[in-house]
Amino acid sequence: MPSQPTCPPAELDTWVADQRGAIEELEAALWDGGLNEALLAPYQAAFRELEQRVAARGADKRYGFVIVIPVADSPLHLKDCLNSLLQLCELYGYGGRENGRWRKVSVLLADDSGEPAAIEQNRKIAVEFDRQGLTTHYFGLEEQLALMDTLAGQPPTSIVGGHRRDAFHHKGQGMMRNIAYLKLAEMFPGNAAERLLFYTIDADQEFKVKVATPEGGREVFAVNFLYRLDEIFTRTDARILTGKVVGDPPVSPAVMAGNFLEDVIGFLREMGAVEPGAAYCQPGARSGGDAAYHDMADLFGFKQSGDAYRYRCPLPGEPDNAACFASFSQRLNRFFHGEHPTRITWFQYEAALASARPARTIYTGNYVFRPEALSWFIPFAPLRLRMSGPTMGRLLKAEMGDGFVSANVPMLHKRTVEATGQSEFRPGVLDESRAIDLCGEFERQFHGDVMLFSMQHLTALGYPGEALTASEIGETLVAMQGEMREKYRIKQQSILERLTLLNERLHDAAQWWRSRDNSALMNPAHPLRVNCAPELSGAVANFERFADNLARNFGADSPCYARIDDVERRADWRARQAAAITGFQDDRRGWNAALDLLARGRVL
How many CB atoms lie within 10 A of CB 534? Predict the structure, then answer.
């Protein structure tokens, strides 16, 4: 640590400000024309130098962060997430250490696991990172039940759900977050001296960004998240800030099947026009833009691209077409676990502070809020709907206005574990051998869309500030169910047409991957070979499995569509959604009563 210069306080401030200015210049150079990796290490070192100067000056009044991480049966994701946080601290040094512990960073690990082995692993992971100086509070099922007992029925089950004591797990991200927020209120009373921000993320995310380079995607520690978030909350009146994600999309396969199918057909069309042993022509870096992965991006005001996106083959060197055919086939069925192998979201640089602007969608896996914003819980959580973040965002926008902002601080999102190609835990997705069943997630997605666009209409009528009649709410839900079902029908028809084309191309006997005599292609000495590609046996079967699973979940006889067409199920969903919307203000009163009770408990 540099010795503190013997000079007046104003000059100490200048000493720190000079280093901040040097960092801004270095950041501009780092991203000039794309990521300049040669400058990344000096950029990180410049922040560590800044931290030393801040420590030498003394009186560090910047925000501390409590990172809230709900996790359910996903210890591999959790360990990667915490490891990335620890590396972020070490690379950038935010807040510095005191007695071997990071002064301004701690973790609340909210365990919603059901498997005893996963619970034990999560406990050990918490201990492991705590020992490394990252203060980690384990908030397990027993601790959660104890907290609920102290609240004696507040908040209501319409916020935290009603669960048997012997099955107090797999509550879902919304209810688990709400219970974790109550724990925050207990841990950090309103009169706490330290300035704090609460930062809630998902366990399958990391404190990195994914950047497109000519050589392929790179995952790098190129954003000093904590420093930039402190800067925004210090220099603006933001009360709640949301980031986004890069890497895997944050949405369900239920609303990505159409455009991915287009990309798969495009891949087969491309493969049909080339020799299997010729070098694969890698695509250039292409940004998918906002919601490029979403079949109905137009609903959110984004322009949809009609052309197919090409696959970037990750094999080393200059792989040939046969090798990349096999490589792509191996990634196809990861799609059903949330990957999108062709429409990856890449990080696009924009200075974080300058990027802060009013928001309308919250990413529940990446948002930050001041302690006074604990008054906002995840609304309608017991419905366990997809799109809960956009729905919450519409409410925040209606009530908070410019106090609710978004900024360019996206986290790296990884849906699957590389070793298995599957999510560790994914409610609503059943994977049994070759058959994948998306119906649970599909139904939650459809009614989540209904809820989101109903909320958009209701907030335009003054909700939640103005009480609406039961008929206004009910009529809105009925109309939106009909409107969304028609949009889903159009998308299904498109999928059916494209699925027919996929099968025709895949099973065309004239294509080299269907040739009876393609065994010669497996010979490294074959004149068409460039590299030793993996055997094609099994690759076509992977494509067939993908097509079968698409037909099972989105085809004419799909049980998923049967669920959303079932009259009784639709009526039940509509009744529960109407009750949740009508009872929202009562829920807020119950939530505030719980916060008050916890505050009194701290005083006592």
Answer: 17
Packing angle, helices 539-554 and 470-506, rounded to 10:
150
Classify residue 298: in a domain, yes or no. yes
Residue 247 in any domain: the answer is: no
> What token pair was written down for 597?
């009770």
* CA gap 513, 521 in Å, rounded: 10
E strand residue ranges, 3-88: 64-71
The amino acid present at 352, given as its one-letter code, is A
Provide the angle, in degrees to the nearest 10, between the axes of the packed helices 75-92 and 116-131.
10
Q: Which secondary structure element, helix H or strand E, spans residue 240, and what is its range? A: strand 240-242
- Is-contact 458 584, C-beta < 8 A? no
Mean pLDDT on 200-226: 92
Phi, psi (rounded to 5 degrees) for 123? -60, -45
Q: What's the burial of 302, exposed, middle or buried (CB within 10 Å: 0-12/13-18/19+)?
A: middle
Cβ count within 10 A of residue 1: 9
Amino acid residing at 143 = E
Closest to 31 (Cα-Cα) out of 350, 406, 346, 289: 350
Domain count, the chain: 2
| Domain annotation covers residue 380 | no
d(CA 581, CA 468): 9
Model pTM?
0.89
Pairing of strands 105-111, 135-139: parallel
Domain that holds residue 16: 1-59
27 inside domain: yes
The per-residue pLDDT for 534 is: 44
Q: Which of 36, 59, 82 is the last residue of a domain?
A: 59
Query: Are the beta carbons of 340 and 260 closer than 8 angstroms?
Result: yes
One-letter amino acid of 341: P
Buried b (16+ CB within 10 A) or exposed e, 477-511: bbebbeebbebbeebbebbeebbeebbebbeeeeb
C-alpha to C-alpha distance for 451 and 30, rounded to whole angstroms? 42
- Count of C-beta atoms within a 10 Å radius of residue 563: 17
Burial of residue 185 (number of CB atoms within 10 Å: 0-12, 13-18, 19+):
buried
Nearest alpha-carbon partner for 344 in 495, 542, 210, 205? 210
530 contacts 278 by C-beta, under 8 angstroms: yes
Residue 363 neighbours by CB under 8 Å, 6+ apart? 242, 243, 244, 245, 250, 389
Token pair, residue 98, equals 């005191």
pLDDT digits (tens, 9 = 90+) for 562-578: 999 999 999 999 999 99
- For the ranges 123-132, 303-312, 373-382, 503-512, the lowest mean pLDDT is seen at 303-312
Burial bucket for residue 602 (CB in 10 Å: 0-12, 13-18, 19+)? middle
